Amino acid sequence: MSKAPMTDAELASHLAEVAGRILIEVRDSGAFEGKALGKAGDATANEFLVHALKAQRPEDGLLSEEEKDDAERLKMERVWIIDPVDGTREYGEQRSDWAVHVGLSIGGVATIGAVALPGLDGGTVMRTDQIHELPKPASAPRFLVSRTRPAKEAVAVSEAMGGELVGMGSAGAKAMAVVRGDAEIYLHSGGQYEWDSCAPVAVAAAHGLHCSRIDGSPIRYNRADPYLPDLLICRPEYAERVLELVAGLDASD
């Protein structure tokens, strides 16, 4: 008796998990260090994900950070948007705050996805079809920022709200920290691409978090230019205040 085909969410989760295991094996092989490890991991995970998606969903479009862009995707309703290693620097440094993103944009909306965190808790996959209740928030909001380049908007808004800055690596790790209850707000304005946020936004939205651009507009995917410079992922009770403060910063510039 043949197996039932995997749903899109099951496929995303399975591929993210397997890519994560592959990346751990590449890292633990000892054959690469530093930047060379990052390059080897990116190439190996990308090859697996691209081949698997083309085999499993041949009619869908594909956009990957590590693959030459194909404009044919712009004609397609369904486009897989992947980042084989989100946080290549952290992966190369053998830290835990990196991720694997497998997201599916349908009609320009991040609809289905999985974010694997292979270096965390022995490997964790957050997904759109397995929802858990958000943990109780901290008394003062924790803002996730870059370890080396905290966004000025995040710094200013955190100060205005009496919040705390928490440095972390990859975009996926930051977004999933909000889902996991390790922080309340991820406000980013330093420049990203669609593959940095598609899967995390899909997972965050499925868990009831607010997801938007920092001007409050919707986040759109599968555009001709995949550059997507800013986003806000936060607990819904903070969204209005954060957007109000960001708008105030823009008005004062």
From TrEMBL:
CDD domains: CysQ
Keywords, ordered alphabetically: Magnesium, Metal-binding
GO biological process, one term: sulfate assimilation
Protein residues bound to Mg(2+): E65, D83, D86, D196
Record-linked InterPro entries: CysQ/Inositol_MonoPase, Inositol_monophosphatase-like
Gene Ontology MF terms in the entry: 3'(2'),5'-bisphosphate nucleotidase activity; metal ion binding
Cofactor(s) for this UniProt protein: Mg(2+)
PANTHER family assigned: 3'(2'),5'-BISPHOSPHATE NUCLEOTIDASE 1
Protein name: 3'(2'),5'-bisphosphate nucleotidase CysQ
Organism of derivation: Erythrobacter insulae
